[in-house]
């Protein structure tokens, strides 16, 4: 599957400068970072959350996890992870698990974790499991201009084996 048409239109409308990075098929954001040989802190992942009011997207580094209590405090909503069947319906031009971060282009309130704003450049899913979009931080923050910035994620601790 090529780049999401919604993402492509968003990039074009914002005049974004970017490059496409091809990588072997991967199943998770941690696997994607390894397959593409990019730092996990610079790979943005998109987590879709929901409640009775609708959907919200959280965008954070692949090496982090959403701290729901922080988003609950920020939004005043008791958000939970969205179901996979919902992802298929909402992001028809994307493969499940390969959501680009520009969820405002899909009509969704989006939160961007501040830790991504500290990176010199950012990578993110193009809508499939074999391509990433790579751009400088300034371009990424401009692209995510409609997202609300907040601190709601924490670094995932890896166990030594």
Automatic annotation (TrEMBL):
YbaK/aminoacyl-tRNA synthetase-associated domain location: 23-141
Record field: transmembrane: none
Highest taxon listed in the record's lineage: Bacteria
Gene3D superfamilies in alphabetical order: YbaK/aminoacyl-tRNA synthetase-associated domain
Protein name: YbaK/EbsC family protein
């Amino acid at each position: 599957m090529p780049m999401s048409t919604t993402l492509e239109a968003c990039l074009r409308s914002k005049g974004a400068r970017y490059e496409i990075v091809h990588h072997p098929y991967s199943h998770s954001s941690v696997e994607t970072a390894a397959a593409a040989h990019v730092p996990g802190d610079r790979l943005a992942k998109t987590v879709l959350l929901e409640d009775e009011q609708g959907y919200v997207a959280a965008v954070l580094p692949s090496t982090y996890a959403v701290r729901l209590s922080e988003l609950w405090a920020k939004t005043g909503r008791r958000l939970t992870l969205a179901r996979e069947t919902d992802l298929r319906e909402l992001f028809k031009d994307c493969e499940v698990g390969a959501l680009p971060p520009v969820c405002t282009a899909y009509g969704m309130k989006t939160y961007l974790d501040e830790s991504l704003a500290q990176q010199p450049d950012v990578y993110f899913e193009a809508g499939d499991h074999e391509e990433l979009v790579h751009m400088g931080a300034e371009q990424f923050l401009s692209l995510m201009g409609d997202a609300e910035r907040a601190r709601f994620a924490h670094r995932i601790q890896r166990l030594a084996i």
